[in-house]
Amino acid sequence: MKIRSKLAWTYIILLIIGIITISAYSILTIRSFLLDEGIEQFERDALSMSLAASSFDDNALFDDKITRLAQLSKYEIAVYNNEGYRFLTFPDYAFEDVMEVLSTNLLQKLEQQDGSPIIENSEQSEKLVAYVDLGRSNNQAQYLRISQDKSQYYAAVASIRHIIYAGMIFSIGAVIIVSFLFARYMAAPIMKLDEAANDISRGNLDREIDLNRNDEFGTLADSLNHMARTLRADNDKLKRLNEKQSQFFADITHEVRNPLHTISGAMEMLELEQLPAEKKKQYMATAQKQIKRVARLFEDIKTLQRYDFDESFINREPFDLKMIVDEVETVYYPLAEKKGLELHTKNITPCTVDADPDKIEQVLDNLVSNAIKYTLEGSIELGFNFLDGEVEVYVEDTGPGIGSEHLERLFDRFYRTDKARSRDKGGTGLGLSVVKGILKAHQSDIKVESEEGKGSRFYFKLPILNKKD
Ligand code: ADP
Prior knowledge:
Blueprint: H1 3-55, H2 62-73, E1 76-80, E2 86-90, H3 104-113, E3 118-120, E4 127-133, E5 143-149, H4 151-201, H5 216-271, H6 277-309, E6 317-320, H7 321-338, E7 342-346, E8 351-355, H8 357-374, E9 379-387, E10 390-397, H9 404-407, H10 419-424, H11 431-441, E11 447-451, E12 455-467
Parallel strand pairs: 7-9
Antiparallel strand pairs: 1-2, 1-5, 3-4, 4-5, 6-8, 8-12, 9-10, 10-12, 11-12
Helix pairs in contact: 1-4, 4-5, 5-6, 6-11, 7-8, 8-11
Bound molecules: adenosine-5'-diphosphate (ADP).
The site of adenosine-5'-diphosphate has 22 residues, from α8 and α11.
């Protein structure tokens, strides 16, 4: 059974029970009210009739007068003498089952009554009965018995009952219609939510539930929408990650294949016996260069993989940034000089930073080696700019610069502005992504300003612990 039918039938059953209970209670209350009213009226009438009967002292016409009184009042009347024997009844058939003599017990009670009627209303009897002492001494008519069927009083209940039954049927009809409409209204959001939850479980995450309600159903719909949105975002993220991963592996294969071809070519040449010694040296150098490139490639991949799985893979410690810069300068100065470039530093003052010294050295290493690699003439400047609580480290060159169309993707893995030139210079295409990964782990970022034909300026910031002026 659907929730809508369940709700509807629950309302219907509960309301029908309510309607029947109220109707039955009303009928019983009205019935007992009418009987109480009837008894009061009966008591008053019995008293009036006893007064009337006690005034009938003409013995010859007594019977006629009593009969007339019974006819007019529509009550059944019997008259008893002072010993309790019945001598007159009207109508006769009403007294066929009634004892002709009054019990001594009743006679005693009547004597004590002082003219007021004794009312008998037993559950078993269908009649209301009143006995009255007429209080006479010179007449044989001493006691009066007045009775009436109780059904008289319930006659009104019968017509009221019909009205109540009609009302009951009308209410039940209305209850059925209203219950179904109400159940539909109540069940509509549940059914919508159920549909949506089924859709989500089947993987259809694009749907939005629009209930437009401010109650708990509205809150539930919002939660489901939120859940679907989160799942959608996670799904997209997974898809992108998957694509990125596939692309990454394709790039690695490509990057490894090239140097392997070159190495294999060099090996074949080296196998030639008549190859001059100078050529042999040249091929050996080529093979070694490519082996170094593959080694660097795997080193970079390792760093990036570590960064992917653990963004905080760095070991922070306070150290003097100047010392690292000095080391880098010492290593790269001869290389720059060999290429006819001037490598100089600016504003390099001792300052302590809280970072991973090896990783920061790797960052400077990559930036300075790129600058030397891509600059054909001019100079490279490595310097500090002191800002509010931070030091900006920059590497500036007078190289070819980078077109603005490349800047957005420059730090992506394997992205190169000029693939052939990069490979030719032993580049892996991972240097800048490694720089970005390391700085991100330090809650910092690498920035670049570049103009084609003029040069490039790569820079990043680190918070200073203290600085000597
Ligand atoms: P690669 O191993 O190719 O140098 P990187 O990630 O270090 O890889 O650099 C990505 C690309 O950015 C390089 O291929 C190069 O085209 C460009 N690039 C990096 N540094 C410079 C620079 N100082 N001057 C000009 N181009 C640069």
